[in-house]
């Protein structure tokens, strides 16, 4: 039974429960909350906490589907593997994986530019694109060194970024305790905007702050005991992030007027500045660590996804090659790093973040449908099973958020998906045809 659960695998099983918890927490506690609080204030004024709460609930619905599928099929590849198992259509599987991949490299490009932007500008005045490229190269080297080394680096960086957010909460409480700020602002709405409209608009932005949990599906083949540790680590990390986010969502508008948060490119620095006691430069370092950690974990996901798709013959098989000693997918790491470097010239953080959310919502929609279809597929080992109502509600939430996306985000996402279709026709289908021909030749011999 245990053997079936673990699977033979070709990647090294080195990620334990605590490491997985920190991996997911570090990916969720990324640049989203550090950079997008101001955008949420623009959508929901002082009620930032409400869109965060709604976004957490929506994310948890889809997380339940991932918990079932990861523990049922503990192998690299994530959404592409699940869609292929559910529908048996290589194109659908390819698009699911490619949407995830496009979201990952786009997010990494955005985070690299965020790293090279205002926060780094506190110390150095350098052109952002070259800095972003060098930054991505460093992330790629750490990724290639090994999954254990990467998640250990994530452990340190997660502790730093969590400390930064808790510092904001504590400083905010100090400001309110001394009679400054205005706690009543947490119930303010934008002018001429309904509660439902502000909540949905804010939740669409806040959702980016919770995505990241899905990346953990792509290291399923590297977990020590997937069925036991994955659900616990997944839900615990998301609830931890949710509590921290809600506290930040309360203290930030209470300490700094929502209009001032909206106009700041570093909204949480404004809270630190008002509170005093902590140099803003120190907090800028913390923000840089948060951005770097998000980029590292996103690139880990992207490379494992390429590896899994290549292993399933949805991408050319050379992309599944691993380093002999370290057992890391070096070919996939090189390709995803180079693509992310090429995307560093695209858009601003908000535009890229919204496009990432759109792409991920399409993936989540397919995954939530897949979990229902795959209920007919029994496996021998024990695994997590979500209540049936949860994936149904998750599907509804994905559709709702997709209807709130702007046309320009659909255009950018459509262009990226179009590239995926071309890749499938040029390389994916050709690879599958060649693989089938090789199988036929082997059978004939």
Explain what this protein looks like in three dimensions:
The chain has helices at 2-6, 17-28, 31-44, 49-72, 79-87, 90-115, 118-121, 128-145, 147-177, 195-210, 226-255, 258-262, 267-275, 280-311, 330-342, 349-373, 389-402, 407-444. With 445 residues, it is mainly alpha-helical. Helix 4 crosses helix 10 and helix 6 packs antiparallel against helix 16. The longest helix has 38 residues, at 407-444.
Q: Gist?
A:
The protein is mostly helical and 445 residues long. It has 18 helices and no strands.
Write the layout of secondary structure elements.
Layout: H1 2-6, H2 17-28, H3 31-44, H4 49-72, H5 79-87, H6 90-115, H7 118-121, H8 128-145, H9 147-177, H10 195-210, H11 226-255, H12 258-262, H13 267-275, H14 280-311, H15 330-342, H16 349-373, H17 389-402, H18 407-444
Structural class: mainly alpha
- Indicate the radius of gyration in whole angstroms: 21 Å
The helix/strand series, from N terminus to C terminus, equals HHHHHHHHHHHHHHHHHH
Instruction: Tell me the major beta sheet.
Output: none
Strand content: under 5%
The number of helical runs is: 18
Q: How would you state the average pLDDT, rounded?
A: 82
Distance between the termini: 35 Å
**Helical coverage, percent range:** over 70%
Shape estimate: globular
| Stretches with pLDDT under 50, minimum 5 residues | 1-9, 436-445
How many strand elements?
0
């Amino acid at each position: 039974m245990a053997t079936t659960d673990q699977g033979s695998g070709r990647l090294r099983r080195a990620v334990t429960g605590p490491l997985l918890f920190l991996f997911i927490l570090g990916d969720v506690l990324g640049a989203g909350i550090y950079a997008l609080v101001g955008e949420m204030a623009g959508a929901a004024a002082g009620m930032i906490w409400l869109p965060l709460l709604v976004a957490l609930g929506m994310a948890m619905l889809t997380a339940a589907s991932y918990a079932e599928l990861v523990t049922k099929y503990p192998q690299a590849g994530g959404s592409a593997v699940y869609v292929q198992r559910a529908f048996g259509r290589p194109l659908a599987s390819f698009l699911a994986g490619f949407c995830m991949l496009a979201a990952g490299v786009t997010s990494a490009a955005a985070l690299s530019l965020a790293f090279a932007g205002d926060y780094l500008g506190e110390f150095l005045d350098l052109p952002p694109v070259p800095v972003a490229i060098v930054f991505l190269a460093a992330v790629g080297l750490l990724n290639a060194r090994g999954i254990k080394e990467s998640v250990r680096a994530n452990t340190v960086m997660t502790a730093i970024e969590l400390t930064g957010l808790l510092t904001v909460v504590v400083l905010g409480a100090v400001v309110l305790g001394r009679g400054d700020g205005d706690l009543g602002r947490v119930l303010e709405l934008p002018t001429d905007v309904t509660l439902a409209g502000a909540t949905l608009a804010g939740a669409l932005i806040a959702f980016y702050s919770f995505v990241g949990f899905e990346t953990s599906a792509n290291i399923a083949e590297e977990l020590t005991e997937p069925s036991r540790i994955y659900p616990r680590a997944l839900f615990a990390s998301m609830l931890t992030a949710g509590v921290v986010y809600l506290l930040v969502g309360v203290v930030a508008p209470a300490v700094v007027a929502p209009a001032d948060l909206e106009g700041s490119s570093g909204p949480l620095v404004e809270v630190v500045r008002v509170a005093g006691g902590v140099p803003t430069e120190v907090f800028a370092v913390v923000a840089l660590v948060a951005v770097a950690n998000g980029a590292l974990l996103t690139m880990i996901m992207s490379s494992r996804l390429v590896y899994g798709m290549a292993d399933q013959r949805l991408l050319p098989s050379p992309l599944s090659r691993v380093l002999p000693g370290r057992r890391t997918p070096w070919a996939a790491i090189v390709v995803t790093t180079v693509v992310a470097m090429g995307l560093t010239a695209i858009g601003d953080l908000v535009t890229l973040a919204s496009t990432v959310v759109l792409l991920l919502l399409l993936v989540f929609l397919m995954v939530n449908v897949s979990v229902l279809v795959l209920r007919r597929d029994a496996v021998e080992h024990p695994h997590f099973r979500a209540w049936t109502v949860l994936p149904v509600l998750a599907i509804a939430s994905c559709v709702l958020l997709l209807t709130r996306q702007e046309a320009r985000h659909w255009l950018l996402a459509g262009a990226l998906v179009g590239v995926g279709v071309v890749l499938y026709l040029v390389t994916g289908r050709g690879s599958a045809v060649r693989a089938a021909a090789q199988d036929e030749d082997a059978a004939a011999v």
